[in-house]
Write a structure and sequence with these properties.
The chain has about 190 residues and is mainly alpha-helical. The chain is built from eleven helices and no strands.
Length: about 190
């Protein structure tokens, strides 16, 4: 049980919040545990959910890549809640656990990611392992693959999602569906630096 008990959707009467919770459920990230926790402050919950849904589900960066980065960050944060969740949209588009695992553990040596995707994954790595490496030279490399708007989208996405994942780790939350059942055998929810 998380340190803050999620509200049941039946106990929420704000139609806008309920609609956002339904959109999150459709995407699969976050699930009712997160939405029920943040629903304790409806005005704040609506802002958080809008930001999560827009940053993850919209924009001009591939959703599957964002999903791999989101899981990579959750593993960095040691957050078993967000590590176990999967975007239904990304799975429907063909994202599989082998690709997620390579993206979280060995993308530099792997074959599943393009040069552009590898630099985006490296961006997430560097922001949390050694932000001093994210310098002009790195941004110049990013600009070879992404527009400045896409770089802003990736940077905002990385910072926002990592923060939410650290927050969920502190709450000791688990997905509504057992994390153990959602994780394939042999996959650890923690990430080892590259």
């Amino acid at each position: 049980m998380p340190h803050i008990t999620p509200l049941d959707a039946a106990d929420i009467d704000d139609p806008e919040l309920l609609a956002l919770m339904a959109r999150a459920e459709e995407l699969g990230v976050p699930d009712g545990v997160f939405t029920g926790i943040v629903a304790r402050v409806p005005s704040y919950a609506k802002v958080l959910l809008k930001a999560l849904l827009v940053s993850h589900g919209q924009g001009n960066v591939d959703h599957k890549l964002k999903e791999v980065i989101r899981i990579q960050l959750a593993r960095f944060a040691g957050d078993t809640y967000f590590s176990a969740l999967r975007s239904k949209r990304a799975l429907a588009a063909g994202l599989d656990e082998a690709t997620i695992d390579e993206g979280c553990n060995s993308y530099e040596q792997g074959t599943r990611f393009s040069a552009a995707e590898k630099v985006a994954l490296r961006y997430a790595d560097m922001m949390y392992l050694d932000a001093n490496q994210v310098d002009k030279a790195f941004y110049d490399e990013m600009k070879q693959h992404y527009t400045e708007a896409q770089i802003m989208e990736l940077g905002g996405f990385i910072a926002f999602h990592y923060g939410m994942q650290v927050f969920m780790r502190t709450l000791n939350a688990a997905p509504a569906t057992s994390a153990a059942a959602m994780m394939p055998a042999g996959v650890s929810p923690t990430l080892k630096p590259h």
